[in-house]
Design goal:
By secondary structure, the chain is mostly helical. The chain has 13 helices and no strands.
Length: 335
């Protein structure tokens, strides 16, 4: 493409579109129709220039022009409580449901890794001695030791807030860093499973595995599920970089990125609930069976939420993405 010739041929249309935009709401019916037609043509011009002869200054001008025209043509709307309800009852669970082929294998493999690490440490005293001195290990695993008192080391509300913040950060890192081919996500997962495996292994070696499971399961089921969902979404985002599918890589990443943002908001709420359980239920005086029952009930409630509400919304066409009116215009790709 000869950019100078192309600009000369279409500059008048761009200037005319800018003139109509400056007039705002004072357009006649014919001028409004003209604005829509010019908006569509300018969007096509921008796509052709970006793909054939990208020029930073011209691209910036046309991008701004197309954005202004789109806002004028489609109008703006404000978010409402209806949007929040729709997100919680359809958008978020549908996004989790649609990504199940990523996070379920992630959950299974990660759990197996934690169990394997725990078995390895618990059945090999020489590995335990490499982790810490015998006195240190006894202090960690004895009745009333560090593992047991960890959950009651701070006031429940403060501890729940701290746990929620840490877990939300871990989930957000999985979602954000997934764009780097998913490699950082795998590292974050490994560190989490290593910590769980070490705790299980040391307590198992001390003959107190039942106590450790009684402390982990009430909050850990829901908490780890949220982390697995975040990791699966991050890995899916990383795979999109490698294989964007039938759309352009830019469009595919934009779609997955928007889904990841929505997922981060929803998972923050899930982790808030698990944080409440960890702060108020795990260290409580309830019997072990009662605490574990609460954890299982919370996990089952989340799975029902995803598979019933999310599955129904997904079958109805919900993807968890923004509404078309709220997304940036997807420009046609030049052949």
């Amino acid at each position: 493409m000869d950019l100078d010739v192309y600009v000369t041929a279409h500059r008048a249309e761009w200037d005319r579109l800018e003139h109509l935009l400056r007039r705002g709401g004072k357009l006649t019916g014919a001028e409004a129709d003209e604005l829509v037609a010019l908006y569509q043509r300018t969007a096509t011009h921008l796509s052709l220039i970006q793909s054939s002869a990208p020029d930073p200054l011209l691209t910036a001008r046309l991008t701004q022009l197309v954005a202004r025209a789109r806002a004028t043509v489609t109008g703006t709307r404000r978010s409402s409580w209806r949007d929040a309800v729709s997100f919680l009852t359809a958008g978020f669970p549908a996004a989790v449901y649609r990504s199940r082929h990523w996070w379920i294998p992630t959950a299974v493999l990660s759990t197996l890794l934690a169990v394997l690490i725990g078995w390895w440490i618990g059945t090999h005293p020489e590995i335990q001695s490499a982790i810490g001195a015998p006195a240190e290990l006894r202090e960690m695993t004895r009745p009333g030791g560090q593992y047991e008192t960890y959950y009651s080391s701070n006031p429940a509300a403060s501890f729940a807030a701290q746990v929620w913040t840490n877990n939300a950060q871990a989930a957000a890192m999985c979602l954000v860093l997934g764009a780097f081919l998913g490699i950082p996500v795998l590292w974050i997962l490994f560190l989490n499973m290593l910590n769980v495996g070490v705790a299980i292994g040391l307590m198992s070696g001390a003959g107190r595995l039942d106590i450790m499971l009684g402390l982990l399961l009430p909050h850990g089921l829901l908490e780890l599920t949220a982390v697995f969902v975040a990791a699966g979404t991050g890995l899916k985002l990383g795979w999109t970089v490698i294989d964007p599918g039938p759309t352009s890589r830019r469009a595919a990443l934009a779609k997955q990125g928007r889904a990841a943002v929505g997922m981060a908001i929803g998972l923050a709420l899930v982790l808030f609930l698990s944080g409440l359980i960890e702060g108020f239920v795990t260290p409580s005086g309830l019997p072990t069976w009662a605490r574990i029952t609460i954890g299982i009930a919370a996990e089952l409630a989340f799975l029902v939420y995803v598979y019933v509400l999310g599955g129904r919304a997904a079958r109805a066409g919900e993807t968890g993405d923004l509404d078309e009116a709220d997304r940036s215009a997807e420009l046609p790709t030049a052949a």
